[in-house]
Every structure is written in structure tokens, then in C-alpha cells.
Specification:
It is a single chain. Helix content is 53%, strand content 14%. By secondary structure, the chain is an alpha/beta fold. The protein has a single domain, classed as Rossmann fold (3-Layer(aba) Sandwich), CATH 3.40.50. A five-stranded parallel beta sheet has the order 2-1-3-4-5, sandwiched between helices.
């Protein structure tokens, strides 16, 4: 495979995507990244901005969710690997849905979350091929699966 397509789903409030992108570029990996719309306001308001206002929040959210699903479903279907990040602060129901969708499509799934979420995410973790805690671990996984290489840091950690 010349170029790997990796979809980065989940939490939008921290810089984890940028850390993965920086690590991929530094490693020179042939990886193209994609993601959902990470502008929270645009994601919430896209339906009513494009298709017209709604009196009830349910219908506003319904329109927005459907438009966002066009992007999300398309990019997950095109991905070679899906990474789903569950953050510390917010419940990311959409991330859980994306993980389930990727699993249903038999996409290789990497889940990333802090250790305190292990119990709550046991079913999601069970569907994943790898469970990481940091963006650096995700980059090391991608380096290994794309090139078959362990970084010096990953090699030392494995030997300990």
C-alpha cells in the first residue's frame, strides 16, 4: 500500500490530532489523515445554517447529525485504520458510535483513552486491535504497522 488513510475520530477539545500529525510527519510515514469537522459551533449549526432554522433543539440536532454523518461515514469507509479518542472531560457518544461503525465495517480500530476509562469502555476496547493512552503510542503503532519498524523508545519500553 503506497499511502495509508487514517481517520481520527473523537474528542475535539485537545490537540491530540496535531500531536499525531506531527509524529507521523517526523517519522516520514506515508499516511493521510482525515477527521470530522472539529469546529464545535459549525458541527452543531451546519444543519440549520444550510437547510433552515428549527423551533425545537431536537430537529436542529437531527439535521446537523445527518449532515455530519455524510462526512463521518464516508471517511470511515475510506479509511485503512480508524483511531478513536475518548477524552477525560466530555462524554463522547459520537466517538462510541464511530468506533462501533468502524468495527461493524471490520476496519482496524485503535482506541485511545486515559486508564480511568478502561472499565467504561471495555466493550469498545474489546473491539479494538490496540488500546493506547497517548498520541505518541498511536504514532508508534502506525509506524510499526505501516513500516514494520519499532522506534528506539518503543523498543526500549518493550525490553523493560
Amino acid at each position: 500500500m503506497d499511502e495509508w488513510a487514517v481517520y481520527l475520530s473523537g474528542e475535539i477539545h485537545t490537540d491530540w490530532r496535531e500531536k499525531i500529525e506531527t509524529g507521523i510527519r517526523a517519522a516520514g510515514l506515508p499516511v493521510t489523515l482525515s477527521a470530522p469537522v472539529t469546529d464545535h459551533g459549525a458541527s452543531d449549526d451546519c444543519g440549520v445554517e444550510i437547510l433552515g432554522g428549527e423551533d425545537k433543539a431536537f430537529w436542529k440536532d437531527h439535521k446537523g447529525a445527518k449532515l455530519n454523518a455524510i462526512r463521518t461515514r464516508t471517511l470511515i469507509e475510506q479509511a485503512d485504520v480508524v483511531v478513536v479518542r475518548f477524552g477525560e472531560k466530555y462524554r463522547q457518544w459520537n466517538a462510541a458510535f464511530d468506533a462501533g461503525y468502524a468495527a461493524a465495517l471490520a476496519k482496524p480500530l485503535i482506541v485511545m483513552h486515559p486508564p480511568e476509562h478502561t472499565h467504561a469502555l471495555k466493550e469498545v476496547d474489546g473491539a479494538a486491535l490496540a488500546v493506547a493512552e497517548t498520541p505518541e503510542q498511536v504514532v508508534a503503532i502506525l509506524r510499526y504497522v505501516v513500516r514494520g519498524e519499532l522506534s528506539d523508545g518503543a523498543r526500549r519500553a518493550a525490553e523493560d
